[in-house]
Amino acid sequence: MTIKRSIAFICCCCLLVPVIFGQDRDQSADTIRLSAKQLQMIESLASDSVDSELDVPNVFTPNGDQVNDYFEVTTDGVTVYDFTVFTRTGTRIYHSLSPRIFWDGRSIGGKELPEGIYYYVIEEEGGSEPFNSAGFMHLYR
Fold it and tell me: What are the residue ranges in the chain where pLDDT is below 70?
């Protein structure tokens, strides 16, 4: 019995020593209070994370040499984009709805497409000022 009491006393002392000497953690330091304006600003940044600019390449070479094998646009990974690729005659050959803008030069059915010029459309889903971009890309094999 005395061993259990001794261990309990030592544990209590270890827990109370910081409080006794004024070293207890200030829990209010872990709490951040934001104003309504700051919260609104954070919400708008989250919904409009694109900042109206994407670095869209205009050439890629899906030939397996590990250099520019994919048409890929760097995004924040959160914002969802509607990405569509068309032939020069207007036939839709690829479509994705994802936070990642990525294409490997294949059709929706997985068929490798021939070299040529293709048209892309990128549209941001949601956001107070949705981002839209369109242009031509060159696929070289």
Answer: 1-34, 38-52
Hey, where are the domains in the chain? Answer: 2-45, 49-139
State phi, psi for 86 to the nearest 5 degrees: -125, 155
Full-model pTM: 0.63
The C-alpha angle 122, 125, 131, rounded to 5 degrees, equals 50
Q: What pLDDT sits at residue 137?
A: 96
DSSP 15-57: HHHHHHTT----GGGG-----HHHHHHHHHHHHTTTTT-----
Query: If one looks up domain 49-139 in CATH, what number appears?
Result: 2.60.40.4070
Structure confidence at residue 50 (pLDDT): 45
Tokens found for residue 5: 């009491």
